[in-house]
Amino acid sequence: MFAYTIKRLLTLIPTLVAASILVFLFIHLIPGDPAAILLGDSATPEDIVALSKELGLDRPLWQQYLLWFRNVLSGNLGNSLFFNTPVLTVIADGAETSILLALLTMSWIVLLGIPIGILSASFKGSWIDQITSGFAMLFASIPTFWLGLYLILIFAVGLGWFPSSGFPSLSDEGGLSNIRYLILPSLTLAAPNAALIIRLIRSSMLDVSREDHVRTARAKGLHPAKVAVKHVFRNALIAVAAAFGFTFAALISEAVVTETVFSLPGIGRLVVQSILRRDYPVIQGVILIIVLLYLFVNLLVDLAYAWLDPRVSLS
Amino acid sequence: MRVLISPLRFILEALRGRKLATIGALWLLLIIVLGIGAPLVAPFDPLEIDPIARLSEPGAPYLFGTDHFGRDTFSRAVYGARMALIIGFGSVVVALLCGGLIGMLSGYFTGLGHILMRVVDVLMAFPALLLALGLMTILERSVMNTIIVIGTVYATTTARILFGMTLKLKNDVFIDAARCTGAGHFSILFKHILPNLLSPILVQATFIFAFAQLQAAALDFLGLGLPPETPSWGNMLAEERIYITRAPWLLIYPGVLIILSVFSMNLLGDALRDRIDPRFKDDIAGV
What we know:
Number of domains of chain B: 1
Helix content of chain B: over 70%
Oligomer: heterodimer
Helix content of chain A: over 70%
């Protein structure tokens, strides 16, 4: 396991470097002088010359990359054109909302997805299975923002149970009860992802239930529910653990849309607004941080996978 | 099972005994007919503005009512079907051509494959919509660019899948046999390996088509997809969202059209997947 962890960490390095090169090149792919792009419309020619010097734009591209990379390592991602503050501060401002939203969404996915998935697989072919499978696929086919808009219309505008938009920080007035602002967004975000997990648990449990050790467990007279949870689900969990990597990616993508629908001050909406404002340093910074996070999550998923199934680290 | 059958027969066989998937396939057929025959079906020009009839309720002469410009929602929905087909098929073609070629070449020439698949790995480190958003920042809003962006995003997964499949097929006896008869690399790849991959590629295509609809709608909604005047289901939702309380039907029609189409495509993809060679089943991740 230790050797596998080291090996996995080492293979991460080239991907990390290549991904950072792509993110670095992003500014250069936009037509125009990178220094002018980074400084925005209000920049004076002197500013542009000064920044060109700082970024080393007169030097070869690989030297510019190394310079940029050194800045990134020291936490300097440049300044936001719109806020005139460091990019890292702007991103950190959105972190609370996005992290809370992600945690709440993950809880819905686990609370709803896992039991329904087990239920669906345990009663394979019955009406329970047909209804849950049908609904799971239906929810995976609904555009996130459409679901969000109608949840707002019904539960916020119509019934008035939840606020329709925004999110004051938990440290603001209202404290912990401010979490109610995130109920509808997290449900919106959870719906398609819980649907995916339901389908995945169902299919991997059906695969596992055909194996010999499950037949043995049944043959020795174990209670069907015990077989389902202890023998089948435990093994099916391996496939589910692997899927959490791409669930996370889907979550990030859909968070961009969900945060926009509910006007949440998170990182997802920051991306969209920065694109519309042409605030390139922020776009670059957010992309870099999300990619790092995503690679880190995938690493954790792979390690969890190897831990759950020792065959992986031995091969 | 290495039986080559025509795509149409493959679809019909997959649909046998699956009522819901058959209904889905019929719905998609209807969308295709509507999309192709849009100028004949639509009673009004989708861009024509009737200022007096703004936000009018569904009824005659505006079957689905009108939007806040006074444009006929039914006609826009019909032209939206055409746009859905263009985006869907376009993305599938881009994803299959780029991703398929990269995947097959990588699986066949493993030396080259190691390098190419690392590049694919790096691109896959960017979550789908984020990659699309990043690309749309650089590119202009247009139908072509939307197709290129969505196609590129799914080219990575397609490459990964076809890489694995080609790797599995390459060591089969029938490939050895072909090599013994003096077949060159080109002939082995496209005459012997590709025909065996057609069914899984078709399955993959259905899922890409479905995903592309959702991605395109999300891009439209964020104001980073098709140009705003283009009649697409995503744009209809994006433009009319503020009228949701005054004219709820404006968001029901395009929303339901997207959901039914994506749902049908997923049902079809599921049915096809159950019908393909069991060796490839684990490779294709659908919904």
